What we know:
The chain is mainly alpha-helical. It contains 34 helices and 9 strands. The strands form 2 sheets. It has a 7-stranded mixed beta sheet. Strands 8-9 form a two-stranded antiparallel ribbon. Helix 13 crosses helix 14, helix 19 (475-488) packs parallel to helix 21 (509-520) and helix 30 (670-682) crosses helix 32. It starts with 26 loop residues before the first helix and ends with a helix. InterPro entries: ARM-like, ARM-type_fold. Residues 1-69 are annotated as: Disordered.
Amino acid sequence: xxxxxxxxxxxxxxxxxxxxxxxxxxxxxxxxxxxxxxxxxxxxxxxxxxxxxxxxxxxxxxxxxxxxxxxxxxxxxxxxxxxxxxxxxxxxxxxxxxxxxxxxxxxxxxxxxxxxxxxxxxxxxxxxxxxxxxxxxxxxxxxxxxxxxxxxxxxxxxxxxxxxxxxxxxxxxxxxxxxxxxxxxxxxxxxxxxxxxxxxxxxxxxxxxxxxxxxxxxxxxxxxxxxxxxxxxxxxxxxxxxxxxxxxxxxxxxxxxxxxxxxxxxxxxxxxxxxxxxxxxxxxxxxxxxxxxxxxxxxxxxxxxxxxxxxxxxxxxxxxxxxxxxxxxxxxxxxxxxxxxxxxxxxxxxxxxxxxxxxxxxxxxxxxxxxxxxxxxxxxxxxxxxxxxxxxxxxxxxxxxxxxxxxxxxxxxxxxxxxxxxxxxxxxxxxxxxxxxxxxxxxxxxxxxxxxxxxxxxxxxxxxxxxxxxxxxxxxxxxxxxxxxxxxxxxxxxxxxxxxxxxxxxxxxxxxxxxxxxxxxxxxxxxxxxxxxxxxxxxxxxxxxxxxxxxxxxxxxxxxxxxxxxxxxxxxxxxxxxxxxxxxxxxxxxxxxxxxxxxxxxxxxxxxxxxxxxxxxxxxxxxxxxxxxxxxxxxxxxxxxxxxxxxxxxxxxxxxxxxxxxxxxxxxxxxxxxxxxxxxxxxxxxxxxxxxxxxxxxxxxxxxxxxxxxxxxxxxxxxxxxxxxxxxxxxxxxxxxxxxxxxxxxxxxxxxxxxxxxx
Length: 759
């Protein structure tokens, strides 16, 4: 690297800190910033000073902003929820207050449409990604009713697939659409009222196959004329719809359109899933080259005949339970006694029995007159399930809150600190739970010990919550307890309790969302951060996706500032990886809120979308943001560009700034990149560090002709027609870059860009 590289500081990673005040910059930078009032297109620059009479909710909060790693948050939630850490989704369309369409994402912009929705209600559509549908088909065990369903879809545009919930009927409907139209043309629909889909603006695309799940109430209210009208509408579009529900009580009314779903046997589902998950692995210690035969032998000879597994599968478990069991076995395929031990820990019936024995403290064989009575020990064990990974002291304090609630005007401790002699902790845990947890010495914690569940026992945590929810405590009591932990606990306790709130939504999504709503309105940033984690946990459960997304639509568009801030935090904590297109829509709405000036969740959410593989949509969206009439939106576009500009391409192209490399290959437009740079270089709150980052690009480009050529091309576009930026570039060359990089050969070419107006 030429120039004075050793004396040149790379730009600070300021994506998580507050915007650097201009007055804190060196003298040379300050003089450069004085001209920052002349922003792009002569617009007035936003300032950090709140306007007179600003709302109290827009003021900065009184605690530092937390920024957990999204990958770590998703991993911890996966351990609790037993759910995959990502959900394959595609374009989403909603008719109602907010709507996005395929055209918006195709060109990398976000269109926001506001409409008045009357009695017609709202509809919702999601086009599943082809990759996800292929993976679904790869591990699918064909159902005996599939052929009949395929024949009906060739003859009709609307078919009713009837069968009990949890038998795989929804998957069967999606894959029938895939066989009819292709993997990339499969979608799911929902509507407040089925008749809403008859409207001309219903989000149904031509040449697609859709599946719509109907609850029991919707099945009861369904009328024949609606089906006729919907079938005509679908025929006009060349699309089809599979209505999935339990039509057992209305079979005679819809005889001609019903296809009874006959699910594949549980053992066939298990076989198909385990083979898919183990494909490409060697599970037989093959001597030379594994040909894959060992996988079939392992499935057929080791797993399927196992007495515990055979008895479980013969009992007719739900398809989702079978799939999850296959996933857990495939993580580290066990054999012999290890397989038996694993099954004893994983099978739902055995797990629930273990959980019941853990919470049924009377079976411990311990005298009830001991220091900790039955209720205290039961509360302690449930607290272990919720706060796995936290210290023993925090677990015991949480147990005290579960029994008595937080004491007023105290630090929240409701029970005396627990002693740390092994026998004392063993008494609280009990013999069954003690086998599933480990006590880890940690000098960083108060008391020096934390409780963790040993590998393979995460499912017991979920079972303990299930048993506690159904047998020991009222749901309102448990949710109130978890909300108290979020409000009073340490950051680790907050995050763990928030995950449990998200888990509870599978039993009562309405009350769980009400709890999150209350937490999201708190003025403390840490509490809102925990509420965002709860939203992520809910969204990781496929059956809750639509309800959560509908709530986020409402909060992002018309919610108060704190609710909107919580939505932004949820996207920053991993939700953007699950719903990238919706993230861009909601973050654009939230970016206009003045409260976001003191937070960086919008930028973190944008970076999450970018790093999840959607670079082609983020930068064009930011370019649109720079043309917004709202100065607050420019600020977030500038901050996001500044953060993304600090990223470098992976080896062997590590000398390329990632954004410049994306422009080189055509993933993003050089014009869009130049617009984003011009915005970041012009705003007072982003200019100082943006200019430093640009200087670092030039420093790294020196000695790499291809990189240098693209840098010069970009700079020419940045200053073209922007006289204030041309003057500031001249200032940087004379007072900052020149002294720091006297031997950089690129600076002479950059200097010529500043002289063009004087020729």
